[in-house]
Amino acid sequence: MRLILLGAPGAGKGTQAEMLTELFHIPIISTGNMFRAHLSQGTELGIKAKTYMDEGKLVPDELTIEIVKDRIVKDDCKNGIIFDGFPRTIAQAQALDDLLKELDITLDKVIDVEVPDEEIVTRMSGRTVCSGCGTPYHNQFKIEKVKGSCDNCNSELVQRDDDKEETVKKRLKIYHEQTQPLIDYYNAQGKLVEIDGIGSVSSINLRVKKALGVE
Ligand code: AP5
Ligand code: MG
Prior knowledge:
There is one protein chain. The protein has one domain (2-26, 79-211): Rossmann fold (3-Layer(aba) Sandwich), CATH 3.40.50.300. Strands 2-3-1-4-8 form a five-stranded parallel beta sheet, with helices on both faces. A three-stranded antiparallel beta sheet has the order 6-5-7. It has nine helices and eight strands. The protein has helices at residues 13-24, 31-40, 44-53, 61-72, 90-102, 117-125, 165-179, 181-188, 201-211, and strands at residues 2-7, 28-30, 81-84, 109-114, 127-130, 136-138, 157-158, 192-196. It is globular and about 45 Å long. By secondary structure, the protein is of the alpha/beta class. The two termini are 15 Å apart.
């Protein structure tokens, strides 16, 4: 199974990706999580990416495509991949098409998780993420078992620097301008399934599984 989770910032891509990786035992390629991991290790790439992320802007395509290129050829990607937050521009989608073709891999589905902008701002203000594995939590909608630590790996939960309201609004604007066109792009390929992203985490998971034909 190879799928892309498409949707605005805060639509719930990361939350659903974590549930799907457990179900299918295939890795998640989240460019956002990869940039944050680089930053926590203090790499040059991480420091460069942070300057864009903190402003709510997209990291340039060349850098983003490069890290996906390196990741996609790893052994654990042979049986399937969940793309979360990649691609985000038409140029990235075209680069991914070329990359998959080279590797003789086909993309099965692109799931677009639809959530209105007003709801997104509420979600982001309550979000924390695991500093170890990147799993997202929410102080109302997805509460961790032990306060402040991750259910999966016990690392500390932290607030993301780009979750300030002003930055979230900027990220939404950029999403509408640069990422939303991917809906038409994948619709034209006959791979797009749109699902309503409003509802409980488990009800959305059911919609995702139905879209994938596994429920
Ligand atoms: P990235 O980390 O990908 O952030 P994003 O796409 O903005 O998405 P989020 O992680 O904010 O949201 P999500 O959809 O994963 O939602 P989540 O499940 O956490 O990217 C960060 C930055 O990196 C970008 O701004 C950019 O600068 C750079 N970048 C990354 N990829 C790039 C690329 N390809 N090209 C260029 N630059 C790139 O859920 C949100 C919250 O809501 C959580 O608290 C969650 O618990 C809660 N929640 C989830 N589901 C529900 C529900 N059903 N009901 C209520 N609450 C819910
Ligand atoms: Mg995410």
